[in-house]
């Protein structure tokens, strides 16, 4: 469903949002059981529409059409709305309790993105505003059996939770969940894994001295070699800039071959807790 992909792209950069509010509402209002957004994705329409509006506001802010003060007001209002949303009042596609877990996961995935605006570098992932949403998403995953057909719908919230933590046990659990989804669906999600590994590596090594390591900075990365030295080419999209930085890789290896990646891979393969 293109409109869903449009909003997901908007998570990585508001400038990528293409469809209008009217189109998002039209798609969200589809109630045909096998075509409804809620059924296909697991995200309730009310959450989908709210985060879509926030991304649209972020795009307006980047274009200079919405002041940062007004944008912050929109962010605060959306955060309050999502936190106060009574998920038990939502009409779910079927009586299965897993829908409630999916709704909770998408609520906190949206909150994580909202909290990262207007400057994704400011708040560290250890901040008390970030950590509860990461834990909530992982709890939702723990409440859904990995063998359940619902589990694969948790992939996007799982991805966001995994990028927003430096806790080793949370990274390990998220890795196990993601690997299960990759194995059960047959899709390897190579680009997603590259982003995750890049974020985890930078959080561990702190080569840039950033307060936070925004995963969005790795979505348009390209590994290149210059003068025999591996670098990571990052285009900064956080504030609508298009400047590029050549960031040195760790001296003992690239993101692809790092010991950190090998530890994660071994944990997943061996199933060590």
Describe the structure.
The radius of gyration is 19 Å and the shape is globular. The chain contains eleven helices and three strands, in the order ααααααααααβββα. It has 273 residues and is mainly alpha-helical. It has a three-stranded antiparallel β-sheet with strand order 1-2-3, with no helix packed on it. It is found in: Nucleus. Its main location: nucleus. One of its GO terms (cellular component) is nucleus.
Q: Spans of 5+ residues with little confidence (pLDDT < 50)?
A: 221-273
Question: Which class of secondary structure composition applies to the elements?
Answer: mainly alpha
Our measurement of the CA-to-CA distance between the termini, rounded to an integer number of angstroms, reads 36 Å
Cα Rg: 19 Å
Helix content: 40-55%
Amount of beta strand: 5-15%
**Mind summarizing the main beta sheet?**
3 strands, antiparallel
Number of helices: 11
Instruction: Output mean pLDDT.
Output: 79
Protein name: C6 zinc finger protein
Pfam family, one: Fungal_trans_2
GO molecular function, one term: DNA-binding transcription factor activity
Keywords: Nucleus
What's the topology here?
Elements (H helix, E strand, L loop, with lengths): L1 H11 L8 H8 L8 H5 L3 H18 L5 H17 L13 H19 L14 H12 L12 H9 L4 H18 L4 H16 L16 E5 L2 E7 L8 E5 L10 H12 L3
Antiparallel strand pairs: 1-2, 2-3
Short account of what is shown:
The chain has 273 residues and is mainly alpha-helical. It contains eleven helices and three strands; from the N terminus they run ααααααααααβββα.
């Amino acid at each position: 469903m293109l409109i869903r992909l449009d909003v997901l792209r908007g998570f990585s950069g508001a400038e990528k949002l293409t469809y209008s509010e009217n189109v998002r509402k039209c798609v969200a209002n589809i109630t045909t059981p096998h075509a409804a957004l809620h059924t296909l994705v697991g995200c309730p329409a009310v959450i989908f529409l709210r985060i879509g509006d926030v991304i649209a506001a972020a795009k307006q802010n980047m274009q200079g059409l919405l002041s940062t003060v007004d944008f912050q007001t929109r962010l605060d209002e959306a955060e309050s709305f999502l936190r106060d949303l009574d998920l038990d009042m939502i009409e779910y596609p079927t009586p299965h309790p897993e829908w409630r877990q999916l709704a909770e996961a998408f609520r906190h995935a949206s909150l994580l993105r909202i909290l990262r605006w207007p400057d994704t570098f400011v708040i560290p992932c250890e901040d008390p505003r970030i950590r509860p949403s990461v834990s909530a998403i992982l709890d939702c995953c723990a409440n859904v059996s990995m063998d359940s057909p619902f589990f694969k719908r948790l992939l996007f919230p799982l991805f966001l939770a995994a990028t927003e933590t430096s806790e080793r046990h949370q990274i390990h659990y998220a890795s196990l969940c993601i690997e299960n989804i990759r194995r059960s669906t047959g899709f390897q999600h190579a680009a997603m894994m590259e982003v995750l590994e890049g974020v985890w590596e930078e959080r561990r090594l702190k080569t840039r001295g950033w307060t936070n390591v925004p995963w969005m900075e790795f979505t348009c990365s390209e590994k290149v070699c210059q003068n025999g030295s591996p670098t990571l080419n990052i285009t900064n999209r956080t504030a609508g800039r298009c400047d590029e930085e050549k960031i040195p890789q760790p001296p003992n290896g690239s993101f692809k071959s790092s010991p950190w990646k090998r530890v994660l891979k071994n944990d997943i393969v061996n199933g060590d807790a």
